[in-house]
Amino acid sequence: MTRKKLCIVMVGLPAAGKSTMAAKLEHCLAEECVSVRLFNNGDVRREMLGDSDTSQALFYSPDNKEAVSQREHIALINLERARNFLGDKGEVAILDATNVSAKRRRKIKEFFPGCPAFFVECRNDDPELLEASIERKALLPEFAHLTPAQAVESFKERIRYYQSISQPVTDEENFVVIDTLNNRILDERVQAVLPHYKLVRDLLVSDWVRGLYLVRHGETAFNLEMRIGGDSDLTRKGIKQAQALARHFSDVDLPYVFTSNKIRSIRTAKVICEGRADCRRRPLSEFDEIDAGMCESMTYDEIARTMPKVHAARTRDKYNTIYPGGEGYVTLKERVERGVKKALYLSGNARNVMIVGHQAVNRMILSHFLYRRTEDVPYIYIPQDRFFHIVSTPSRKLFELVKFPC
Ligand code: F6P
């Protein structure tokens, strides 16, 4: 093999975000005209052994000798396929499997003499996200014969088996440890010259949004009265706006629609998702509208009259002003960014994702992808008869404000 070849080896417990990361690497490297291929052990397992037998947690027990040898055989099949690929015209092979034991990693290195192995360990230490990822895994066809609760328990047991044999990747010559929620590098060491290293490293830490539709909820009773915050429902016009969005997106595949916990956001999403069996709605409190504290449910005029200091401060410096007992844009930033990361993580490789947010929240989401000076952020135009379409991959950036007929 020439020195141009690279073997990227994913490492990590089940539900740590490996496959999402591996698919992102494959997609982006291919866009850069690198000859790349993904080798997923789970796919070979399902191909060879079917779903139900290997969905049992016991299949992953290190003490289950027969299953261990079946799993080693599966790993070997993919190693051979990857070797053939690299031996031919392939440049980067991505091995997508847990690869948590040092023994397995040694075997991989022995399999590709002359081709450096770059171990990419994915970590997901956020308990809430881990739980959500496991719930998502429990919906896979391989768990169809179990109740959701049984499937979740079985998957957790599988994780525990892998945990019991897990050894630190930090002993490897070339490795990186990624916090998959935050696209952040936690640890790394690279001792060899790795082809495509810079590109791969950039991809590991960059956002990857192939199609984000950022929608604001439809008109509410509070909007009509110019009252802020609260939890009011949609008006007749608001429902019509949501129905118009449903029509506009009728031909668009929408596997994930994220909302806040507010009635207006949930109601809008419900109308959009009506009749779509494949659409999963998920409320995230990170997308709740800015908390106006003592000013909640007041009109802007009432605030100006009864709380002139707050009004004056917002007029002077809207971004940094914090409502008494509530939030300001400056404090909203962190939780909204976390919501964006959560939504992108939970939607995995979905082609399209929708967020039904609020005025202030959508301003923050937008500014996460499109740089704006902080003082301009609270004035970004967030209408209810338009949505933002955002694409943000290393090779493509798109931000368009789309008007839909309503
Ligand atoms: O008025 C609708 C609303 O979503 C309020 O709930 C929220 O306080 C406000 O917009 C945020 O916008 P601004 O910061 O411009 O007041």
Task: List its traits.
about 400 residues, elongated, alpha/beta, 6-stranded mixed beta sheet, 15 helices, 12 strands, about 20% strand, binds 6-O-phosphono-beta-D-fructofuranose
Written overview of the protein:
With 406 residues, this protein is an alpha/beta fold. Helices cover 42% and strands 18% of the residues. The chain has helices spanning 18-31, 41-49, 52-55, 65-87, 102-111, 127-137, 148-165, 197-205, 221-225, 236-248, 263-273, 300-306, 308-316, 329-346, 359-369, and strands at residues 6-11, 36-40, 92-96, 117-123, 174-179, 184-190, 209-216, 256-259, 280-283, 353-357, 386-393, 396-403. A six-stranded mixed β-sheet has the order 2-3-1-4-5-6, sandwiched between helices. Strands 9-8-10-7-11-12 form a six-stranded mixed β-sheet, sandwiched between helices. β11 and β12 (396-403) form a beta hairpin. It is elongated, with a radius of gyration of 24 Å. 6-O-phosphono-beta-D-fructofuranose binds next to α15.
Outline of the structure:
The protein is α/β, with parallel strands linked by helices. It has helices at 18-31, 41-49, 52-55, 65-87, 102-111, 127-137, 148-165, 197-205, 221-225, 236-248, 263-273, 300-306, 308-316, 329-346, 359-369, and strands at residues 6-11, 36-40, 92-96, 117-123, 174-179, 184-190, 209-216, 256-259, 280-283, 353-357, 386-393, 396-403.
